[in-house]
User: Fold this.
Amino acid sequence: MRVLVVGGGGREHAIVRALARSGHAPELFCTPGNAGIAADAGIVAADDGVVPAARRLGADLVVVGPEVPLVAGLVDELEEAGIAAFGPSAAAARLEGSKLYAKEAMREAGVPTAGHELAASREQALAHLSGCSYPVVLKADGLAAGKGVIIAADRDEASAAVEAFFTEQRFGATQVLIEEFLEGEELSMLAVCDGTNVVPLAPAQDYKRIFDGDRGPNTGGMGSYSPVAGVDAAMVARTVAEVHEPIVGLMAERGTPFRGVLYAGLMLTAAGPKVLEFNCRFGDPETQAVLPRLRSDLLDLCLASREPGGLAGVETEFTPDWAVTLVLASRGYPESSSKGDVIEGVEAAAATGAEITHAGTAHEDGKLVTAGGRVLNVTALGPDAAAARERAYDAAELITFGGRQIRTDIAARAVERTTQEA
Assistant:
């Protein structure tokens, strides 16, 4: 079986590694890939598009990683060309492509989420903010690579955020959702769906801000870990019942069944889980922590999700080990990125047993160099949170490049909580 993975980041590298463990022993390919993925899969050029590339390859399945091609309808194009694809249709991917669409769907399905108002202009936003309580959350309606969220502590910060959205158009031309600020702790719950059935994966927690202590601007994610202390099987079941299943049911009623991965970004509030956002694909960097723990066959899950009712009765199996993923980012990220900085120590880090997945790397003059904002992911497993965290940081310290950024507090609270519980 030939499987083509679409994307070129750390998430796609983790997907390739997980597919390589499949009992089907698939031939793996990736487009556009990166320097690290090239060691694990054949790199396929797709200058004329993914569909022609998949046809030339004779791909039996195409797994689409990033949100942009999903929202643009790549799965629809592949299926119309007779090429099997894993991921939602463009109509179903609107859950991520438009936060307003997702909010309206949640309201109709009765899914708990933060209250919100839509501002279509700078003037509307400022008028609404004059009567808000603070802090308040402002979100770009469309895709923004995980960065289009600003939490404003007061009116001055909110006004500056409005200028960033509407005057600077920092996240493109967009409407803005002004949301109630939710108190609690964030949780990422990914589930594989077949249009009817929902099969949850292991819970994870990620870190969006660039600096320790959750300070600084939002990024695409600076680290993650799985499992999550306090999130047991009962909480997972509750989340699926209150969040995933109602949305999947609504999408089916609308004639746009959701197939693929439905990622719910949640806030665990005193009143229970509430949805911050939906993503229509594997999360990044949560996937890098979740998939190394997966013992079920990922390819089987992907294939079953394409069949109506294909996931009925399916349960996923995960190792009891903890996984901690660290993101090594380049100088200037997230506002910019430094490219061409020589990377050293990757082989030494991998020799420790850590899994090194590449996000923004390339080969230049025979050397591995930076080629993006998030450069590498370092994931380590351990029997508990403390061991996994120590192994991840020990491995990460062996990797160097100019301007390297890394948070030092990833999974620290998990260690604290599990130590207290013990």
